[in-house]
Write a structure and sequence with these properties.
By secondary structure, this protein is an alpha/beta fold. The protein has 8 helices and 11 strands. Helix content is 29%, strand content 21%. Bound molecules: NADP nicotinamide-adenine-dinucleotide phosphate.
Length: 283
Amino acid sequence: MPPIALGDPVRASTIGVVADSRNPDFAVGQWVMGLNGIEEYSVGSAGGFTQPIDPAAVPAVTNYLSLFGAVGLTAYFGFIDVCEPKPGDTVLVSGAAGAVGSLVGQIAKIKGCRAIGIAGGAAKCARLTERYGFDAAIDYRGKDVAALDAAIRAAAPDGVDIIFENVGGDILDAGLLNLRHGARVGLCGLISEYNAPEPVGIRNLWRLIVNRASIRGLLVADYVPRFAEGAAAMGQWLREGRLVFDEHIDEGIENALPAFMRLFDGSNDGKMILKLATEEQGL
Ligand SMILES: NC(=O)c1ccc[n+]([C@@H]2O[C@H](COP(=O)([O-])OP(=O)(O)OC[C@H]3O[C@@H](n4cnc5c(N)ncnc54)[C@H](OP(=O)(O)O)[C@@H]3O)[C@@H](O)[C@H]2O)c1
């Protein structure tokens, strides 16, 4: 995707109601999901992420931004397609208490794996084991690569078969030190590096060589044609009570910047959503 130009709205997954339409497939009043901007009205066209959605088919319409949207489908396809889990695998997830990471840990458990999550702070680590069912949690705060390495080694003495990477930097470097033979690293995000003034160097890539391991980037956009398949699987697990998910909803366009910045200070508990329209507008 092209970089966001200065002065343009920040790109975001969105849901909303059609206010005006020149496309017969999108009637006024129809709920739609899409890739638009943090803005009160968007002009969109059919195709790609822009799909009609049915609020009656899900517990809450916002779930099209979390479990049944890009977040849930990133977790589903990123883990299953890219990381190729097998029962008995040990899985390390960074950004584990976040929207994507919390789902990856739960899918890992559903697939018969052992799940270890890395998150910031005692409260988030408690959520990993108590709410999301991870087998172990590691608090990364205050830890350098050596301390992270020791913590991962304590939680997974035989190493890890899969890393689902959301964070990068020191956390990825420490994870690489714990790869098992034939391990897979799914590179989903590098959130600790997004605001770095200089590119961050990863120093332990050599561990991929000695362990005959692989690393593969993933982009949820590639899976748009398979979204229905992923949503059906997630819906089934939700109905069976095997998945929980959280949404952190802030309100008002004036709160767009603080809401966005939560992603970088970790004060979001679940999928960060900004609600712009009001009940008075029928939403
Ligand atoms: N490849 C794709 O197609 C795709 C699609 C969607 C998302 N993503 C990526 O997936 C990752 C997770 O996204 P999300 O939407 O689920 O967000 P999220 O995990 O709900 O929120 C971001 C979390 O990242 C953690 N974090 C932020 N800065 C950090 C740092 N410097 N070091 C360690 N942890 C840090 C914070 O948790 P703590 O409190 O634990 O620090 C924060 O809550 C992001 O990297 C995102 O870019 C990729």
